[in-house]
Every structure is written in C-alpha cells, then in structure tokens.
Design goal:
mainly alpha, 8 helices
Amino acid sequence: MDLQDNSDQVRELNEAFCRYIFKPDSLTKNESDNLNNVVNSAIKLKEWHVPYEIITEKIYDTNTENLEKIPNSVQEKLVNVRANGSEDISLIRKVRDDTVRHVHLAIVQKKYIDSNLKQAKEELEQIKDVKHSIYSDFIAILGIFTAITFATFGGLQLVGNIFGKLKQFSFKNIGGVLMLGSIYLLGMYLILVALLIGISKLNDRKYYLSNNSIYVLTTSFITIFTFGFGLMDRIFSTHILFWVLLVLVLIMWGIVLRKILKKSA
C-alpha cells in the first residue's frame, strides 16, 4: 500500500511540476510558492526524478515556432525555487539543470523529427506526382492508340466497301467515292477529336487545336468534296453549285496560304 501511495504521490508531483514550469506566462506569487513546495516535496522521495517523459511529451506537443521561448521560460521559473534546508541546495540545483538540459534535448529531437517528417512528406508527394503522371501517360497512349486503330480499320473497311461496288472505272464513280470519302474523313476527324478531348479530361489536361489547323483541315475536306463533285458532273461542269464550291475552295486556300506566309515572315 505504501508503494501505491508513493506512486500516486510521484504522479501528482510530476503533473504539478510540469504544469507550473510549462505555463506560458510568468507565475504568480502563489503559483511560484506552490512550485517551490512541489520541488522540495519531490526531492524528499527516493522514487522521484525529473519527469523526462512528460517533459518530452510537452515539447513534442508544442508548435515549432514557440519552442525557442521554452528553455528561458523554464529556467526563470526554476530559478525562484529555494531549498528548505542547506542540504537540499545541490538537489534543487540538480533538478533545475537536469530539467533545462532535457528541455533543450527534447527540442533538438522534435526539430530533427519534424525535419524528417517534412522531407518524407515531400518525397511522398513526389512519388504521388510520378505515379499520377505514369497513369496519365498510360491512359493517353492507350486512348490515342485506340482512337487511331478505330479510325484506321473503320476507314479501310469503308474504302474497301466503296471500291468493291465499283463495276467499272468512270469519272462519275470516282467522284462519288471522293465525295463520300471527304464526308467520311470529316466524320472520323470529329470522332478522333472527341476521343482526344475525353482522354484529356481523364488526365486533367486540356486538348487544344489551333484555329489554323481547323481551317486547313476544313479546307482540305471541302476541296476533296468539290473535286469529287466535279468528276461526277463530267469534270468540265456547268453546274452552278460546282463553281460556287470551286470559288469557295480557291478563296479558302488563298486565306490558308496567306496565314502560312504571315506566320513564316
């Protein structure tokens, strides 16, 4: 029972000791007297020692920016502790020195641990970024490959079906193939763009197509369609729509050439 009583007393003294020395503000006269009584009572017990584990826990729970003030604050509070007897002076001094020394040690340990934790978090973020980049690139490559495969095989099948139905070579038949081919190319191009936009959204990126590229591709499709229309109408067509399309194509290619020359100048 005496051992249990001593254990409880030591725990209470440790809690009171740490509560007073880690108080942010200066101690009042009453609090200073209480700390003095706590220390003098503690050194009378053989089971008591400076509560290093509680001090360490207090330091670890303190924000890093407030650590530098703690040693001086603890030192100032313990300086006012006076021994009740001359034979206890050295014990009081030892308690003060051991406490302040351990506070410094705990601060060094906390800074070291915080530094390692910060470095570990930065490395973990880098690993996450690399992992995300690998996944994004994989999805992009797979998506682009799928889109190209879809367009290629679909185009080959359509062209094969069109040319397979040609019974004889004629400008009219070739013109029809060119017209259908231009419409098909435009449709496949729009599908590819839609696939690429979808892939870019999965990767948290944006797919951009310049206005010049859109203009050149649109002009190319219209040119193929116009040429096919002209062949269907016996090349030297007198159809008004053919000449309208031809003038439109010439104007559009003129604009394209102007943009190219302006960009290269």
